[in-house]
């Protein structure tokens, strides 16, 4: 409901102006959206859960998918008022593995310098596959510039993997999606990290 939004209460991610915000449950909004809360959600924090908030309640037989989209810089991704650093994310993912919070975990990040969140930080032996919009030293770029909304509706990497996911068959592999997204993303270098066999 930002005053600059000519379509109050609506969010579009493509030129067709299909609202992707309406009727979508929002578990954390506003001041609740912090790196600390994000980490607690991933770790299944009991205090949050007891307060009636949703947390990840996964176990050793579950596959987990995480998509993060925001601004970034070397070794960090942005939240509305502060940052999550690569070391803290790596520490959290290692703890999730030690606590048997997943069988396999897939993590996609759309941000500038997104590769720095995993490069030299994500182990290859904890059943996590990660892909990023950019390498550790470059920007990622906006996509679908819209004159009515007066902003871009998405980012190049995210738009390509999401549109691929919507049309791909159930047998499409993560590696196939990575190769497709990498080929379609022209303004940054799509990267992959961790266990590439997933």
Automatic annotation (TrEMBL):
GO terms for cellular component: vacuole. It holds the Pfam family Peptidase_C13. Signal peptide: none annotated. GO terms for biological process: proteolysis involved in protein catabolic process; vacuolar protein processing. GO terms for molecular function: cysteine-type endopeptidase activity. Belongs to the peptidase C13 family. This is Legumain.
């Amino acid at each position: 409901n930002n005053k600059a939004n000519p379509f109050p209460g609506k969010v579009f991610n493509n030129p067709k102006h299909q609202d992707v915000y309406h009727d979508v449950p929002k578990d954390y909004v506003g001041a609740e959206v912090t790196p600390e809360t994000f980490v607690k959600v991933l770790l299944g924090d009991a205090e949050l859960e007891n307060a009636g908030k949703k947390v990840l309640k996964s176990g050793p037989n579950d596959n987990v998918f995480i998509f993060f989209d925001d601004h970034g810089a070397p070794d960090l991704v942005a939240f509305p008022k502060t940052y999550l650093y690569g070391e803290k994310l790596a520490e959290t993912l290692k703890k999730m593995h030690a606590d048997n919070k997943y069988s396999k975990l897939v993590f996609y990040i759309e941000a500038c310098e997104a590769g720095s969140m995993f490069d030299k930080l994500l182990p290859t032996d904890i059943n996590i596959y990660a892909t990023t919009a950019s390498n550790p030293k470059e920007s990622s770029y906006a996509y679908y510039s819209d004159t009515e909304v007066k902003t871009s509706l998405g980012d190049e990497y995210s738009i390509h993997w999401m549109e691929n996911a919507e049309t791909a068959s159930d047998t499409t592999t993560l590696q196939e999606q990575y190769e497709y997204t990498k080929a379609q993303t022209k303004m940054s270098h799509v990267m992959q990290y961790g266990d590439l066999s997933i």
